[in-house]
Amino acid sequence: MDVRVKLNLGLEHYLNDKNRYKTVQVEDNTTIRKLIKRTGIPLEDVCIIMVNGKYQKEDYRLKPDDIVSLFPPIGGG
Amino acid sequence: MNFWQRQQLMFSGDEGTKLYEMVALIAGVGGLGTHIALELQRVGVKKLYLVDYDRITEGNLNRQVLYGVDDIGASKVQRARKMLEGFSLGTEIVAVDQVLTINTELPDDIDIIFDGLDNIQARFILEELACQKGYPLIHGAINSWYGQITTILPGNSLGFKAIYGKYQNEEKYREEIPAFSPVVSLVSSIEVIEEVKVFLDRGGLLVNRLLLVDADDYSLNILKLD
Prior knowledge:
The complex is a heterodimer of chains A (77) and B (226). By secondary structure, chain A is mainly beta. Chain A has one helix spanning 32-39; strands at 2-7, 21-25, 48-51, 54-56, 67-71.
């Protein structure tokens, strides 16, 4: 199935690509943790996971057409 | 002096009186902190504590709106106090030139605390200090086009653990963070709006909810924390 992924705050650079929006093919029921590993983004760099506008954890199981947004920590002031 | 005529149109008499008696502490008088201080003074709060140990550098001037070129090298809190006092708007300004540590004694007359800090570790210390005293804490943070805001009420909030848990002792994220004034201004304004709502006991607060601001695609999302 296809999952739409939005990469924020420079996470897209891990993919050597300026495009922040990706379509990633994953198996049904794949966890976000596996999705992140597949993209090559270090897990420790992902602080906030948003799926379809809702906060989720790494063990969330993806469904078709989910829209995933990944953020590193936002800590500046 | 009454410069709040326009503001009074949106608050009841009791609410207005409450606002003008408010005492706030701003931890970190950098980008967020300077914007917050300016806004709170215009709201008309009674007293502001400004806490920061840092000195002004050239690199601060793109977003730290209380400082100018002539202030480089000076104490942030002292220059901020002087600038704010120059407006003569009645708010008492107290400059506290010190590092916040777990042993810092916060004043007893505070109603609310603002997070204007620039790193995650210091935020955990501030949360601990606020909880010890039972003070509400309004959190804001920025990075590039993004920002986030939440409210931590002592005994009633998940707090920074739910947001930054795995980064509490992580040094990596203390490196220079991209920042520019319009996003800092946006996030600090929302912090002040949230603070007024907390103080006046209005609904729809960001308690256990994280407001994520993306100024790049103009999206706002409220994430329920758990």
